[in-house]
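Structure (tokenized):
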């Protein structure tokens, strides 16, 4: 079974509170999502392996550390996942970015892929899938499967908020994918929204209804 990491850092929790506030406008909402994503990236990459390198300072040569070999990839689920990309890139600017687009079939209610563009060497990278809201888990689980179908083996899922139902589904269907959260909420309501949640992340990011 995969691990679930709920990030308790005070700065992350403080900023999640701002996102939850219905009075927070789109401009501030976008900025806070970017900031939380950057802080989450810092925490989620804590265990990346390091190697020794030699550098020359203005004074002398010395041993230093560099990330060992593994390359990173960032794959937001359209459209709300786009809001998390810049925060990640602020810390790992060399990461390559792919995109996955899904829609829900009105008859079967199953997620259908309409767009999937990954880095050419995605199968050699550690991939972070970005999805602000992990509600039922259907879209995230489908996106992860689409990425696996492209040969990717190392995947992590990063979300701002999650409901227990969504976490359980992803763990059941992808027990090899660790999940990183800024907050784990109480439940889903009858409309499939996370409670207490923050509303529709895409609408709040881009000012749509």
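Design, position by position:
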């Amino acid at each position: 079974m995969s691990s679930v990491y709920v990030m308790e850092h005070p700065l992350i929790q403080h900023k999640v509170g701002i996102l939850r506030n219905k009075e927070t406008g789109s401009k501030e909402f976008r900025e806070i999502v970017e900031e939380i994503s950057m802080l989450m990236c810092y925490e989620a990459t804590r265990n990346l392996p390091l190697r020794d390198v030699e550098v020359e300072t203005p004074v002398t040569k010395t041993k230093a550390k560099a990330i060992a070999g593994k390359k990173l990839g960032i794959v937001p689920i359209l459209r709300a996942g786009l809001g998390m990309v810049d925060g990640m890139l602020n810390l790992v600017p060399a990461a390559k970015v792919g995109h996955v687009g899904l829609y829900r079939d009105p008859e079967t209610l199953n997620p259908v892929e309409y767009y999937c563009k990954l880095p050419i060497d995605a199968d050699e990278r550690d991939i972070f899938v970005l999805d602000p809201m992990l509600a039922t888990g259907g879209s995230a689980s489908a996106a992860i499967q689409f990425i696996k179908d492209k040969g990717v083996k190392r995947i992590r899922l990063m979300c701002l908020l999650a409901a227990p139902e969504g976490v359980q589904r992803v763990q059941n269907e992808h027990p090899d994918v660790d999940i990183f959260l800024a907050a784990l909420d109480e439940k889903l309501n009858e409309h499939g929204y996370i409670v207490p949640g923050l509303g529709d992340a895409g609408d709040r990011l881009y000012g749509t209804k």
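Reviewer-requested clarification: The radius of gyration is 18 Å. The CA atoms of residues 89 and 95 lie 7 Å apart.
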